[in-house]
Amino acid sequence: MTATVLLEYYSTPKTERKEPFDFSLEEFKAYHTDGYLKAKHAEGQFKNQKKVGLWKYNNLGGALYKTIDYSDSSNIHLVTFFNQDRKIKEELTKIEERNGSTSYYVLKRVVYYQELPDKIGEYLFVSKDGFCVLDKGKTVNLDENTPDNIIEEEVSLEGIKYYIWKDGKRVLYLEKKY
Description:
This is MORN repeat protein. The protein is about 0% helix and about 65% strand. It has about 180 residues and is an all-beta fold. The protein has one domain. The strands form three sheets. The chain has a ten-stranded mixed β-sheet, with no helix packed on it. The protein has a three-stranded antiparallel β-sheet with strand order 13-14-15, with no helix packed on it. Strands 10-11 form a two-stranded antiparallel sheet. A hairpin with a 4-residue loop joins β3 (about 25-35) and β4 (about 40-45). The chain is globular, with a radius of gyration of 19 Å. The model is unreliable at about 1-15 and about 15-20 (pLDDT under 50).
């Protein structure tokens, strides 16, 4: 059985949901709509009023931008991000839903492509196997073995510096002053 919910987006960030929504249904599909465009936003399954299994999220253009593989037994889930059908990064994330709000806490991040800080939506290839840049359980050291195109962000009171790794060396890529 499938439930459909239309999400209407206006020029303001207000979101309205057309009711009713029956959580007893097992499958869920939600759609973006602005009067012209109608594209699937989210698709997944519920079990005992909780999201379970693989959920797929699409952008306004209908392209897949994220999946979340919800665990039945814990609140730690695998979140995978996509851009133009390429896997960009994976995050092991603690997701908590309380009183209508959701909080996300990233425990581990593995990147396959690195987004450029000055060119939103443009990515550089890092590794087909991915490279761990964040692991709450252990220190991630960037050194001469760091793959090309990993970008580090260094924040200070003066501004932000972005460094890119090339041929085992850390090179200043971009500096933004406050």
